[in-house]
Amino acid sequence: MNDFLKINKVNILSYLSLLGIFMVLFQITLGGVVRVTESGLGCPDWPLCDGEIIPDLDYHTAIEWGHRVSGSSIGIIILVINFFSLKFFGSKSRESILGLFLLLLVLIEGVLGGITVLTELVWWIRLIHLGVSFVILFEFAYLYAISKPGLSKNSFSKKLKPFHEKMLFLLLPSVFILMLYGSTIVGLGANSSCMSWPDCMGQWITFKEKSYFIHMIHRYLAVIIGLLILYSAHIVGRFSSKNTFVKLISRSLSFMFVFQIIFSILLVTAGFTNLLRVIHLTFAATIWIFSSWLFIEYRLYTQSTLIK
User: Fold this and answer.
1) Would you give the distance in Å from CA 24 to the centre of its chain?
2) How would residue 305 be classed by pLDDT, with cut points 50, 70 and 90?
3) CB neighbours (10 Å) of residue 255?
4) 251-280 confidence digits (pLDDT tens)
């Protein structure tokens, strides 16, 4: 058994990291369900729930407790990754360092979850909580990229031009800001204030209500950062080699963002229903993971060319 794990260690780690990505995406989705159903205080204490490990599960308690169980499962998979990386890759390997960083992040995330409950869902704590989950997604994506055999090798036909590189490096912080601002308008109660599209109740620049202005900033950011997303995906796709992972991701990112815009229009016209809001968050997290992979793949490619 030990020999089997040693021989297949790279593939096993890639499967574990990919599983981690899906688990975090599910956790973010479940967090959206907790928010839209107002189940955040379904478990009023922490780390237990109603003073128990397995509480009596009414509607709100079941949702919040399920969210905590899902988070704990991510912690378990990260512990497995740490043990596996230390044993088969060594303590100084990139795999072990990433595993340790993931462990630190998930511990911070757990503490933030507890603070969120104990402060009775202060919105800016929830914002930090979501931000850390995006960083965890990025680290899982990075671990997958370095552990998948030959994933970044020959991914690009040639290096991007300096201007294109700058745009690609600007992509991740821009998408991060867009995602977190979306959560901010929810925390400020402005997410459903503009019930028309593309304007806000007939207003574009001057607004009668502060909530209209807060909401419309998100739309303006989506336009600006959306163009950056589409441009970066196009450029990376153009310079990437045929039938490679990065070519697939660049196309998927373009499609996903356009689909998110269409879905956002539906969200407004349908009256910001809870189900659509949760799906909207899941799509946003998917855009983040695809943007992360574009950046990561190019970074790994440039590092491999420097080594050569």
Assistant:
1) 8
2) low
3) 12
4) 999 999 999 999 888 888 888 888 888 999
Does residue 307 register a pLDDT over 60? no
Q: In terms of Cα–Cα distance, which of 119, 86, 123, 124 is closest to 102?
A: 86
Show the tokens assigned to 76: 């378990």
Q: How many CB atoms lie within 10 A of CB 190?
A: 20
Greater pLDDT, 300 or 7: 300
**Contact at 8 Å (CB) between 18 and 144?**
yes
Q: State in Å, rounded, how far the first CA of the chain is from the last one.
A: 36
Only one residue has tokens 């988070």, namely: 71
The whole model's pTM is what? 0.92
**CA distances for 11 relative to 24, 147, 190, 249, angstroms:** 20, 7, 45, 20
Comparing 244 with 153, the larger pLDDT belongs to 244
